[in-house]
Amino acid sequence: MDLKKSSSVEHGIFTEKVNTIRAAYKTEDKKIIVSHIGELDQRKINTLSSLVEAQLEHLKVSKTTTKKIFNVVIEVLQNINLHGENVGVDEIPLNYLLVARNASDFVVYAGNAVPNEIVKKLEDRLKRIQSFSTFELKKQYMDVLTNGSLSEKGGAGLGFLTMALKANEINFDFINLNDEFSLFSIQLKVLK
Amino acid sequence: MTRFELEETSNTPHIIFDSEASKFSIEGKSFPEDSKEFYRRVIDWMEQYKAEKPTALSLSFNLFYLSSSSIISVKQLLLKLVDLQNQGTKVSVTWKYDHDDDDIKKTGEDYQQLTKLNFIYKVNV
Q1: Mean pLDDT score, B24-37
Q2: Cross-strand partners of B63
């Protein structure tokens, strides 16, 4: 199912991004197993995370891998819920979650709109996390755990570190939507 | 001290703090929308209990999953137990996990390293 075409430029960019990801999963051993577009609240997070668990159980994925994917899915969704900007067309926010199955791994794709002014900061933070070895990630994690407290928004500063520790590969990109916002996309690969 | 209990939901754990029965346990999944708010009540209860100067307290955890913000909140609860220990309460933490769940076991070890509390590890059967 493709997203409907929209006249809005922002929605067009969003749709193209989601459809590009989906286009790569049209064969028997490459499939999208969970997909969600638009509004996100805690109730939807609960439903989606249960759905991911159920799908993985159905596919007889090991408990360790299932938990890693479950972990990554919750962190990306709570991140969107906490920090995502409500940029949307006809009140549908530009959020997506796709969980895809490959022959030897799973990939969690997620995206949401972020203000342009935080793009550089977020990019730098993620580039640093990408460059860390597992040892450095764990050290950073322990530093934040030792000294960290929850921000007003409820962020722990552990989200991306947790994702990077659970996933085997982390990639991201930003696509400019307009003068104010960009579409932030993250993809996390978890080996089977 | 009044008994404190929160029923399990799809994203929050079952919590029982019962000083009369000496039962203190947290079990289930923890990824509340607002972790700070959810655990504030739990930590507040412990703060009040501290005033009673209990001689001993054993808190048992059996968590299947903790979100990153829950990890910080549970740390704050454990730091409250450190306060109790510092005022003379004999504190121990029982950390239960499934035999194939290294991540949860590790989370317990991280907490132990951080708080230096007495941790007892138990594999769920």
Answers
A1: 95
A2: B28
